[in-house]
Design goal:
Structural class: mainly beta
Number of helices: 1
Shape: globular
Radius of gyration: 23 Å
Amino acid sequence: MGDRGKTLNGPVIRALAAVIAAGFVLAGCTTGPPPYVPPATSTASPAPGLAGVPATGGIGVRLVLHTSPPGVFDADTGALVPLKGAAGGQRLTSLLRVGTTPVLLDAPMCTATCEPWNVYVYADPGSSPRSLGKARSAAPGADRESLWLIREDAPEDCRLQRVSLAGKAAGPGTPASCRTIVRQESARGLLITVNGDVAQSEDVLIDPETGRTIHQFPRIMAIAGDRLLIGGLIDFTVLDLRDGTRTQLARPVPNGTANALPSRDGQLVAVEFGDPAWHGSSVQTRDVWLLDLGAPTWRHVPSMPYATASGLKHSGLDWSDAGDLVLADDVVGAWHPGEPAWRLGKMKPPAERGQTIVTL
């Protein structure tokens, strides 16, 4: 430590350079991933709006939109039917899907503190919902018939509990931090975010029955079947939970905030790279890529990237039960992997809406 301020002479510098060069040669002989090479980027202006083919007979897509109040929108007729019992106005709302069932989270606007969500299950979107009480956080269960909830029993006193869509609790639950965000469950565990309200949050895969940590990383983008998609600074890693195999993947594009959405069968992940200021402009772009977890390989979704007319905060993605990727922007589009183009609905969804959608 005492030699820190001394100047290195020429022979020492040349010796260090030789050592570093040798290190690079040795690194090339390992079996690790190749160095990251940013893909070439295009400065051509993205196409305005989602391009595709208007479906003559319609696309048959109905989805719950994050409007005020939330409602069921028919992409072919333009009908928007508010969910029964859903409040409008200045309230916090969020949507999630359990199997094929939409779930609405609703709470008043935050003042000094934020109240827990009211949890409503719409087993029939045309009928009144079933209330599951209040929760700080909610996530779909792997069985497609239950929710994981962070229940608040008192300020700073919470527990993790599984509750069926019919409202039956599977036991009293286990103690949990009120700052825990439950996100998604597969047969391999429950994905949560610890300290979700601070910058030092961590994503953790746990055994929900015991609370045991299975894996922990700064950012786990999604769990899909037997695999984790882990986000890094310049790349992604697919972790196979069956045997611990890790496959590193370069980002398909260098820019944009990545959000991942696994297909319902857990074989594919749609990864959206949203850019709120394309090349420093006011143009907001969406660029969706499909990650086949079995290979794993990237595939560019047709008509990407494009300039979103609605804005990133007012457009969303979901998967249908038939395996279609559904996108709601200034138009509703459906695309099945392998098809050459998006099938477009006839009617435009309402402009005033949030970005979460649930495909029925």
